[in-house]
């Protein structure tokens, strides 16, 4: 290897290690199911009404609900905080119809159970200025919890006389604009596909599980140690088997769960997903499954599918929209997954023969992944918070 190529390879290895370290440090703060709220808006003529489901655990962290500190939030404690909840939430949501502001006011407070716990159900009305013509555009500014949790998402279901559309608010996409006209099937499909890509990219437990399975793809386990493969072709086919198995498995359970044919408790699903990451990473250190890692990908992929499905199920979409969402979201997940594989595999193959890949990235990375996932598992099994997002 020439000195120039050696410096390039060293630079690539150091960059890869820095990226893995940075990602793993940030992943350690994301053990719980990602924080979500569910915002449903109904536009009928000039009238806009809404329902906002917000997790009690998030409200407890934001404004405090547990008055006596016993770890339980009673209806009495929640009722005493109704005004505070409405003031806090509605100050972080703004609606505009055709560029005209619509002040919000709370109408009803309820409680509901979602797959991951109890939620405040805040119903409200928007006082939009009257207009002689039907509204054309709804603009929404969303800022709930972003001041302390940049991973929070607001899942929107917007129903109007022209149909139902969905959207996702994040710290990077706080303001969005929706045209109040009938969206074509292709527009809805593409919207769900974009959500699928986004959810795999922020689904850090899914990413770490996939990376744990991909790390050995450019290696062979011989004589009790990992050795680099000689050609790209075997590595490619190994990755193809792993990704295909994972895709097939989570597509099965994503479909069954989203269509409400099978349902599992969120805590069990999230804990098992964390366990799958631990086992996949430990398998790289002392392989129990060497050449058939696609079987591991399939078995645990079944559980990961329930994790993906919770996003669609909790949106409460109509049946016809849910079917379209299922196909688009699933294909979006696969596109996001293939993007990760396409970025990882060529670089891993380039670095496979170096000690830094074998010891630093393969061994060291697997140890870090197992450690982070073990923390996730403890937090999810015992419902405790070890790391808190800044």
Low-confidence stretches at least 5 residues in length (pLDDT < 50)? 12-19, 23-32
Strand order of the largest sheet: 5-6-2-1-8-9
Sheet/helix structural class:
alpha+beta
Overall number of structural domains: 2
Major sheet summary line: 6 strands, mixed
Mean pLDDT: 85
Strand content: 15-25%
Our Rg estimate from Cα atoms comes to 23 Å
List keywords for this structure.
390 residues; alpha+beta; 2 domains; six-stranded mixed β-sheet; four-stranded antiparallel β-sheet; 11 helices
Question: Please, could you describe this protein's structure?
Answer:
With about 400 residues, this protein is α+β, with helices and mostly antiparallel strands. The protein has 2 domains: about 5-30 and about 195-380, no CATH class; about 35-185, no CATH class. It has helices at about 5-25, 55-65, 75-80, 80-90, 185-200, 205-215, 230-260, 265-285, 295-315, 320-350, 355-380; strands at about 35-45, 45-55, 95, 100, 105-115, 115-125, 135-140, 155-160, 165-170, 175-180, 220, 225-230. The strands form 3 sheets. The protein has a 6-stranded mixed β-sheet, sandwiched between helices.
